[in-house]
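Late entry, evening session. Most of the bench is empty. Finally got around to the prediction I had been postponing all week. Sequence below, unchanged from the version circulated by S.P.
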Amino acid sequence: MNTENSINQNGCSVCRPGEENYTAFRPSHRPETVLYQYDYRHKDSQLFYGKKKIMESIEYRFDTSY
């Protein structure tokens, strides 16, 4: 996996409370596929995250979770 634009440090999210981060990556077992990793940390420090092929589906999932 390419980690040049990683949103993690040592396997832990670097997302601050009230912020969101996302990045595109290609898994090593499927290099032709582009996936998006999305992290959102709520103001109470609870982390929501997901990995999908389409960024909009991740955002929709988090928008409807309240």
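Two things to note before I forget:
The beta strands are 8-9, 12-13, 19-25, 35-41, 47-52.
Residues 55-63 form the longest helix (9 residues).
Will write this up properly tomorrow.
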